[in-house]
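FW: tagging you since you asked about this chain on Friday. Here's the raw sequence from the shared folder, copied in full. Didn't touch anything.
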Amino acid sequence: MSMSEKEKDPAAMKEEGNTLFKAGDMQGAVCCYTKALKLSDSQAERAVLHRNRSACYLKLEDYNKAEADASKALDTDPGDVKARFRRAQAFQKLGRLDQAFLDAQRCAQLEPKNKAFQDLLRQLGAQIQQKSAQLNSTDARVQQMFSLLLDASAKDLDRQKAAQNLVVLSREDAGAEQIFRNDGVKLIHKLLQSNLEEIVLSALRTLVGLCTGHQSRTMAIVNELGMEQMCAVMGSGASTVSLAACHLLQVMFEALTEGMKREIRGKDEAILPEPSKELRSMLRHLLEMMPSANVSGPGRDSAINLLVKQVPRKSLKNPDNSLTLWVIDQGLKKILEVAGTVPELSEGPPLTDNSHMSCSVLLSKLYDDLKSDKERENFNKLCEEYVQQHFSRQGLDAKLRAIQTVSVLLQGPSDVGNRTLEMSGIMDAVISLCASKDVTHQQVAVEALIHAAGKAKRASFITANGVALLKDLYKKSENDRIRVRALVGLCKLGSAGGTDFSMKQFAEGSTLKLAKQCRKWLCNESLPATSRRWSVEGLAYLTFDADVKEDFVEDKNALQAMFELAKSEDKTVLFAVGSTLVNCTNSYDVEKPDPQMVELAKYAKQHVPEEHPKDAPSHVEKRLVKLLEAGVVSALVCMVKQESPALTEACRECIARVFLALVERQEDRGTVVAQGGGKALIPLASDNTDVGKIKAAQALAKITITSNPEIAFPGERIYEVVRPLISLLSLECTLLQNFEALMALTNLAGISERLRQKIIKEKAVPKIEGYMFEEHELVRASATECMCNLVLSTEVQKLYLATGNDRLKLLVLYSGEEDERLRKAAAGTLAMLTAEQPELCARIPGTTTHWLEIFQALLLSEISDLRHRGVVIIQNMIQAEKSLAETLIESEAMEILSVLSKGGEGTTEPVSKIAQNCLDKAVEYGIIRSREGKEKTKGTDP
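HL: got it, structure written out here
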């Protein structure tokens, strides 16, 4: 039957699935059974396919799918004992012990003598008893905590301890269930109204324990407590309480959105309504918090942070952006109220230094989540209407709100910001307000001018019309707040040429003077943090100039002042710090032009970009050393830990780029790891731009190659490194990234079976096999080395045992290649495989007619490692079958083994010992007369 015919026959696909299942290829088996299910019309056949696929899912540890498939098989045939047993196993793993016990009991009734059924029944009985005892014990502890907390006469200290103990109990399944069933939510409701901050915090943390991963409890809590109560707590003045309430709402959102998955809808598998009503209610209340004057600044920032995390789609592959459209319809103008608030004016809600930046991020996320031109046009229209509404009003305050809104839009969805900036009168108002005598008016206008200079067309317009004005403000203003902002405007315009040494907007030396003033303000601790933050903004632009970079890294005080700002409460500085460090480390992408195109451009008298001499690798390396000495790693680690919308994906990408530059030199990697860099890179490799993920993963690979992974990533963290490394095994990555990932995975695969299982589970084996065919010698060899460590796992050995593939043949042929590294890896893999799976030995002669020559060449190699691998393979083959031993002894291998067994110069003791073992086995078989005998005999001794 041809392959195309087989794919149309459900019975053939089922048999193919069975073969793959026996070979240990569970994913392949699932694919075959799924195809067969699509083709089959027979109910009985479909039931068997569901049962078989359930077995695969059990092996893959996807217990929800295993239970679903087993249930479908039982719907057709309730007497299918295999399907019922598999469902019982799935229920057990899912923690649904009562249902597992019922299924196991039914299996035992149908087949009383089946030992597996009886064993499972005993296990479940013991687990149910243990859970019951735990519940009884927990119930008493919960009641004790409740009594203390409700006792008005109890001491505050005792009540605080009781509240903290309640938090601990809520983190256990049994404790959370008992708190919930004993009307604990009502008690928590009372605790939230306490005047003691510690008790309110404990109440919020207890709710986190109750809601984590449990949709049904979360829905009940949202309905019982009400969003007004939780938003009021989050909007309170206490920042610690506000953050705790924000974390609770984050957990609630996750429980409701992820709760569609059956495993966390509730252990009792209750029939629940979809949580969309609760979700919309929570989002509505968060939007109501935006313009409210009763909400504190930190509380409003927390609400914006939640909207950033929960509203836009996690992946653009998901076609449903209805939540974003709903938020734009219901709340865009409320968000713009925050964007347009000028804190120095009397009107408007209270803000923090981070509020405008957070607003920009939220607006940008909402705009980026739109799918069509119609949706984007509606967003633009709403923003323009809001700006026009305020700009057309009488009075300067309303116009300032309009300009402030435009400024925030320019930092967020810049296309929308540019459209609002081009509205009639806006730009003229910005220019005229820059000359105002009022500091607040000047500040709003100058900031808008700075953000407007972001686009090339705007930069050229402002260079022509605004530079003189900014210079005038910088020189003549008596207020440092205005001077530093004017300076940033000049810095931004002065850096319009980027890294191109030949394109400078200002006269020679001007950028160095501007940078010097930025560093002076940065180190001036008497200035407010916001003004110092603007000086970092200036450096972010000026450090495109290599002279500025050199001066900056030499100024240790300025570096440390910037790092301290990066660790401060002002999150808006994060991107400026990241950009400055990217420039100083030259970790931005630079495309080197084709030399022929450069010559053509010169001939045509077109502009050719030039690199600054101080951007040469030797200068960059020195700058990296200076940054490490100044403490850059600890600053980057603190930046990664920030829970703020200001830590955007673009900012994360900057941090990942800098980390990659810092670990470029092998001798610096230990310093980066010791200061927490390894730990910080793990989240950067998963939550980042696509480029940022690759940069972070490559940095992880470099660390894993040269450091002990168990020290660099202690405990469970080492398992989190596997997925980022595998992401580098992609055609979209460079060969260097592929090579480094393979090297790193080789190190991990050599540590433990659990790590090998993690690599296998992440579906890395087929990718590694693909790179074993790569043309580049180093990549091919590193992939083979990785496979050498992975074959210690039974699952990988089964792939080589499966028939119908050339895996074994490839290893044999690679053992005869000229590349020493590849030969070592392939021969080492063969040595381990033939030791673990002796039946493979008999297949080796069928792989290639040259197998004997290849192994003899290994035995004769001058490289001791190759000789050792060769003699181990020969020993394994001789021990596996007498016929193989006869073939080997009849060849020149006999003489080579005899020489090796005598030791001598160049032959190590292990090699001579193994060679002697081979000869001893041949004597045992009766193939040769004695250890010393060279004459070969056939049949029995005479």
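FW: Residues 297 and 351 are 4 Å apart (CA to CA).
HL: agreed, and The first helix runs from residue 3 to 6.
FW: great, closing this out.
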